Every structure is written in structure tokens, then in C-alpha cells.
């Protein structure tokens, strides 16, 4: 990293992840999708297709991570619905990339903000008792 600001941001992000509980990690991933989609929209408006595509690709990768964290066995219908919604969002991002469609980017951002809002409503009130085992929260399983 040649840019000191990029290096600082990377170090800050690594510290946030290392100290986060499973619920907070999911929050960070959801916020990451929102941030990447916003950046893609900005690059689209600037006419920078390469950067737009990179940001969309990153958002899709984060969505894949969210999908993989779903525990469909324990989460049942809710986990399946989230999986379907994340898949839909990925498809919309691909279409937005191909068609340079800011409205599709806005749609994905709006959907993720709604999911994030709901996720924040179920925030745990105390830390997990055993940090050595995977922690299951609702329909998500995150190894810590």
C-alpha cells in the first residue's frame, strides 16, 4: 500500500473485525455492501466503468459471504428467504453493471438497508459464553 490513508483504513478495518462479535461482523458485511454499491453509483456517475465494475464485484463477493453464513437448517424459512433475497440482489447488481443502471444500484442499496435495519433490531445484549465454538444467531452461523 503506497497510500498512507489506504494503509490506515486497512488497519482500522482489521482492528474492527478482530474485536467484533458475530452479530457485529454481519452488520459490517451488510454495511460493506451498502458502501460498495454507493461507490459504484458514484463511479457510474463519473463515467468510470472500470471502478464501477470493481465496486459491484466487491459487493457481490460480500453478498456471497453473507449467503454462506446462513444456517439454513436452523434458520429454516427465514434463512432460505434471505438466501433468495441475497441472490436476487446479486442478479440486480450484475444487471446494473452491464446496463449502467443507477436505479438497480439504488434498489439493492435500499433492500440491504432494510435487512440491516431488521438485523439491528435483534442485536444481542450480552457476549457469547464460549468463544471457542461457532456461535449461532438466528439463522446465521459465524465461526469465532
Distinctive features:
144 residues, mainly alpha, Four Helix Bundle (Hemerythrin (Met), subunit A), two-stranded antiparallel sheet, 5 helices
Uncertain spans? 131-138
Mean pLDDT: 83
Number of individual domains: 1
| Helical residue percent band | over 70%
Broad structural category: mainly alpha
- At the fold tier of CATH, the topology name is Four Helix Bundle (Hemerythrin (Met), subunit A)
Give an account of the 3D structure.
The protein has 144 residues and is mainly alpha-helical. It has helices at residues 4-18, 22-46, 49-69, 72-99, 102-121; strands at residues 135-137, 140-142. The chain has one domain (4-142): Up-down Bundle (Four Helix Bundle (Hemerythrin (Met), subunit A)). The chain contains five helices and two strands; from the N terminus they run αααααββ. A two-stranded antiparallel ribbon has the order 1-2.
Amino acid at each position: 500500500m503506497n497510500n498512507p490513508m489506504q494503509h490506515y483504513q486497512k488497519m482500522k478495518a482489521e482492528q474492527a473485525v478482530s474485536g467484533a462479535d458475530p452479530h457485529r461482523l454481519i452488520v459490517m458485511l451488510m454495511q460493506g455492501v451498502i458502501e460498495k454499491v454507493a461507490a459504484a453509483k458514484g463511479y457510474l456517475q463519473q463515467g468510470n466503468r472500470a471502478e464501477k465494475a470493481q465496486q459491484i464485484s466487491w459487493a457481490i463477493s460480500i453478498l456471497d459471504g453473507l449467503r454462506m453464513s446462513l444456517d439454513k437448517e436452523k434458520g429454516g424459512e427465514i434463512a432460505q428467504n434471505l438466501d433468495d433475497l441475497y441472490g436476487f440482489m446479486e442478479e440486480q447488481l450484475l444487471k446494473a453493471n452491464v446496463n449502467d443502471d443507477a436505479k438497480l444500484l439504488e434498489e439493492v442499496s435500499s433492500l440491504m438497508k432494510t435487512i440491516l435495519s431488521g438485523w439491528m433490531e435483534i442485536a444481542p445484549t450480552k457476549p457469547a459464553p464460549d468463544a471457542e465454538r461457532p456461535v449461532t444467531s438466528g439463522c446465521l452461523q459465524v465461526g469465532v
